[in-house]
UniProtKB/TrEMBL annotation:
It is a multi-pass membrane protein. Residues 91-283 form the ABC transmembrane type-1 domain. GO terms for cellular component: plasma membrane. Pfam families: BPD_transp_1. This is ABC transporter permease subunit. It is found in: Cell membrane. The chain crosses the membrane at residues 23-44, 97-117, 126-147, 159-182, 203-228, 266-288. The lineage of its organism: Bacteria, Pseudomonadati, Pseudomonadota, Alphaproteobacteria, Hyphomicrobiales.
């Protein structure tokens, strides 16, 4: 008993729950969250107020009388130029642009990454370097050549043209993500499948694809965020009949005629940003898993 009493406890010393370092960390995180959430709060409360209440000047006060009329007007009645049909037309144009662009770019990038990681051919590293280099070239440098190419293909000012542009510009970064993810998987899986006689597509569809949900979510979130929030490509390549939601929002907010309706502008802004926010909150855990599982590993 005396020997047992003299034995010192082993292991790390339990940390106190509220250490100064922990308090400082959470304090900084709280300030950062407040910094980013305060503008969102102002947008939400402003969109739920009437214009007489907004003119009273207290932008931080909650609405005395909640009204959803600004949301209805932003969606179906706000003027976006010559037409006053709200941003609903731009919303559906954005959907028509987004869905095929995401599907095609993710599909091609996943196959590219799989081939570059597991089926390396002569000059594959050079090809990958060139493809990756394209992700860092400023878009503005390519605008005029792209206009000429799409004009010759008779795709300028069409939905097909803007989908093609987003697909091309989305492939380099997504190819990098998929290549690094597939390279981080155990190579024994690939070798065992090759020994069993499986080919290129069998390995990809039956082995790699079922294990790749996290990285597909990462690529999907990146593409959805980039394409939905895009303004430059939409205003140049989509054409007046196919303007996406961001272009319509710009026309609503920067209208120079009539009364400035801040509540309608805030409602239109929130409607425009709703889709990326919903996608991220729904699939946020898978996004983190995909990043941690090799999305940024070399």
């Amino acid at each position: 008993m005396a020997l047992a009493a003299t034995i010192e406890p082993s292991g790390t010393k339990p940390k106190r729950r509220f250490e100064p370092r922990t308090i400082m960390l959470y304090g900084i995180l709280g300030l950062a969250a407040l910094y980013y959430l305060l503008p969102l709060y102002v947008m939400v409360v402003t969109s739920l107020k009437g214009m007489p209440e907004i003119r009273m000047g207290n932008i931080f006060a909650p609405p005395m009388e909640i009204t959803f009329e600004p949301w209805v007007k932003a969606w179906s009645q706000a003027c976006t130029g010559l037409y006053c049909h709200g941003i609903q037309i731009g919303f559906w144009n954005s959907v028509k642009i987004l869905v095929p662009s995401v599907i095609v770019s993710i599909a091609i990038a996943s196959v590219n990454g799989y081939a570059l990681a597991n089926w390396r051919f002569k000059g594959s590293e050079v090809f990958f370097t060139i493809l990756l280099f394209g992700a860092f070239i400023p878009y503005q440098v390519m605008l005029y050549p792209l206009v000429m190419v799409l004009r010759e293909l008779h795709l300028f000012s069409t939905l097909g043209g803007i989908v093609l542009v987003h697909t091309i510009f989305g492939m380099p970064i997504n190819t990098l993500l998929f290549r690094n993810y597939f390279a981080s998987l155990p190579p024994e899986l690939f070798k065992a499948a090759r020994v069993d006689g499986a080919g290129f597509w069998q390995i990809f569809l039956r082995i790699m694809l079922p294990m790749s949900l996290p990285i597909f979510v990462v690529g999907m979130i990146i593409q959805i965020t980039g394409i939905w929030n895009d303004f430059l490509f939409g205003v140049i390549f989509a054409g007046t009949q196919n303007y996406p939601m961001t272009v319509q929002l710009n026309n609503v907010v920067n209208a120079v005629q009539g009364v400035k309706e801040y509540n309608v502008n805030m409602a239109a802004t929130l409607l425009t940003g709703a889709v990326p926010l919903i996608v991220y909150f729904v699939s946020g855990r898978l996004f983190v898993r995909g990043i941690a599982a090799g999305a940024v590993k070399g």
